[in-house]
Structure prediction request, 234 residues.
Amino acid sequence: MEFFLFLLFLAFFCLVTAVIVYYVKILFFSAKTNYRREELTDIRGDVFRICLDVFESGGNLVYGALAFFSSALLVWLWSLLGSLLGEKGPGPFEHIFHMPIFFLAVFFSFPFLKDAYRGEKYLALAKPVLSGLALGNLSAGAVHYGLDRDLFFLFYLLLLLLQIPVLVFLWNREPIFGVSFEEPESFAYEEDWGAPTSTGSSPENFADAEEDGPFTNESDELGLGEDPFPDEFK
Prediction:
């Protein structure tokens, strides 16, 4: 029963976060000033695309979905330890095991991981992992707060205010405290991850090629002043 409620809350918070991300995008992160009515009301397709983009981080839907649900399940199992060690009702163990420890650890360690493992394609999974840790924490807290009142309301409100804004920036591909989680040029994806292939040509090379022309190095056997047609054909 509790796990079923956890999955319901996980889907609920995922959709609610996607809605917030969409409106923040068009109101603050977009250069548009005028919007059609459909852009503000008919948002179902955009909301599902935002959620799908989280799972497809790095270009692989399977890896992204596994990273998201595995991290959410980890947080759910971690929160159960507070119920086992503590008593019914709000207590220190419940609040300690509902603190976003894993979320904060991954968030603050990502800049160091990015520098240490630069070029690894698995760095692209930071987005679904962080999303799963945050939404899993909020879903587990909602279950325990709703069923047994194991958490104080202000504590759960703090969890919302701490993690939802980070997800809004993360899902909008905006830097957070100067740290960007969207740098595809630093991740060495393989072809099955949807990475663009590099041609190895710089813009300067293309400019030189256009300036010289394709037949610059070829010799003109006829010469500029010679007529290729004999006189009898004129």
